[in-house]
Amino acid sequence: MTWNFNMKDAPKSTTIPRTVNTTKGLRSYNELQHEYLIVETKCGKVLKSYWIPDENRWAGLATGESPVAWQAWPKPSAAMAEAV
Fold first, then answer.
1. Is residue 39 included in any domain, yes or no?
2. Looking at per-residue confidence, does 84 or 26 come out higher?
3. Which residues pair with 72 in a beta bridge?
4. Residue 2: inside a domain, yes or no?
5. In the prediction, which pLDDT does 73 show?
6. Is residue 1 part of a domain?
7. Residue 61 resides in a domain
8. Looking at the DSSP assignment, which residues form a beta bridge with residue 4?
9. For the chain, what is the domain count?
10. What's the first-to-final CA gap in the chain, in angstroms?
11. Which of 11, 20, 53, 74 could in theory staple to 35 by disulfide, Cβ–Cβ 3.0 to 4.6 A?
């Protein structure tokens, strides 16, 4: 994988509408689904992070700080998922 230095292209968390059947009937709500990334900070630290929309910041970083680069978090292949 290679580093992407354009933070505007970094995928961010999204909300997914959900409906569940409860004892009081159907309940609809929005569920936050994180898009995990590998990010590098300006001081050279590398960590797993995701966008927190309510706080307008990246997890693991202070408000107002932004990573300098990112990579997609690897997803298991279909073969790996079947092996588990």
1. yes
2. 26
3. 37
4. no
5. 92
6. no
7. yes
8. 70
9. 1
10. 24
11. 11
